[in-house]
Amino acid sequence: MTASLLRTTLALLFLGLFGVLETTISCRNEEGDAVDWFTFYKLPKRQDKESRKTGLEYLYLDSTTRSWRRSKQLMNATKSVLGRTLEQLYEAYASKNNNTAYLVYNDGVPKSVNYSRKYGHTKGLLLWDRVQGFWLIHSIPQFPPVPEEGYDYPPTGRRNGQTGICVTFKYNQYDAIGSQLLICNPNIYSCSIPATFRQELVHMPQLCTRASSSETPVRHLATLQSAQGQYFLHFAKSDSFLDDIFAAWMAQRLKTHLLTETWQRRRQELPSNCSLPYHVYNVKAIKISGQSYFSSYQDHAKWCVSQKGTKNHWTCIGDLNRSPHQAFRSGGFICTQNQHIYQAFQRLVLYYEDCN
From the record, what ranges are coiled-coil (predicted)? Predict the structure, then answer.
């Protein structure tokens, strides 16, 4: 083979490989580039008339950065981090590709005023092929629209703060993810599981058809690994686990005191809990650089972070609030010891409620 022909062959191989990488399903940043994971914090809409805040501004952090940054995009823009990531769903739907699968779930279905208590208090989206895909977990009611309608952000997600995390996973993680979701019992309102996946991912068709299983455990903890090797723990509880997931399970299993930020609706919150070896404290106010603070009553987010001074630095993002009613709902949290995520969330805590 001549040197010229060899260079041409290598160039074609490189372009072919580059094309495959570019089209691989993954979490995406605002430039449309693939990232291993990202997390966002959609800020609440300010109530004062002088404020120009729209309820669509958000903070953003991904696997290529070290701390929060304010997005230049608004959350309802197709160039936002969610718009860029979900664009892959719309492309897969339009192409009718039998090699791509997806599940979209929310206990508050888009364009519906009813919130189903029959299903888990869960909100999210999975999209994957036989190489890899992503799992987006978020707290936004009535989001996203069904794939045929394209990207939009609902008015119901503007007033309060919202959080979410997207993780890119290789195909071999989706069997475990399906098992976790089966426990969480999500309200799936749009899905497509082509035949090519049904033999290996047996739980995904069950989820798509909303079929129940008598063999589903009361709770389960799974270890997941992102496409680039970041480890995550996922806690999944069914509605048969009748207790506060934070105090009764997560804090004790992670061996750390937890500061929890969940929607603290008046007269529907659980108090901070110091009755077990590892304590759970309610965050009462969040501080944002350039914005004074906002209270948990304005925040629909669901996350927790290890208390400062504890040995194990964990951050968890997920589905459930610290509320007596939520003890009867299924749902879960995905947790990481990534130090950039930990520091980003830890710095948001303005103050929290001690135990009485």
Answer: none
Neighbours of 196 (CB within 10 A): 14
Q: Is 12 part of any domain?
A: no
Cβ–Cβ < 8 Å for 132, 223: no
The amino acid that residue 111 corresponds to is K
CA 42 → CA 279, 286, 302, 323, distances in Å? Answer: 27, 12, 12, 22
Per-residue pLDDT, 15? 38
Give dist(CA 38, CA 167) in Å, integer.
7
* Active-site annotation holds for 300: yes
Q: Which domain holds residue 149?
A: 25-353
pLDDT in tens, 125-161: 999 999 999 999 999 999 999 999 999 999 999 999 9
Query: If 0-12 CB within 10 Å is exposed, 13-18 middle and 19+ buried, where does residue 214 land?
Result: exposed
Q: Count how many domains the chain has.
A: 1
Residue 14 domain flag = no
Catalytic residue among 220, 279, 300, 313: 300
Average pLDDT of the residues of the chain: 90
Residue 190, SS3? strand
Residue 226 per-residue DSSP state: B
Helix (H) or strand (E) holding 197: helix 195-198
3-state secondary structure at position 163: strand
Query: How far apart are the C-alpha atoms of 12 and 14, rounded to whole Å?
Result: 5
Q: CA-CA distance, 184 to 121, in Å (whole number)?
A: 8
Question: Which band of pLDDT confidence, cut at 50, 70 and 90, is reported for residue 311?
Answer: confident
Report if residue 184 sits inside a domain: yes
- In the block, tokens 């290789």 appear at 170
- Per residue in 279-310, pLDDT (tens digit) is 999 999 999 876 568 888 899 999 999 999 88
What is the C-alpha to C-alpha distance for residues 118 and 253, in angstroms, rounded to an integer?
Answer: 28
Tokens of 275: 């009755």
Contact in structure between 263 and 300 (CB atoms under 8 Å): yes
pLDDT at 52: 61
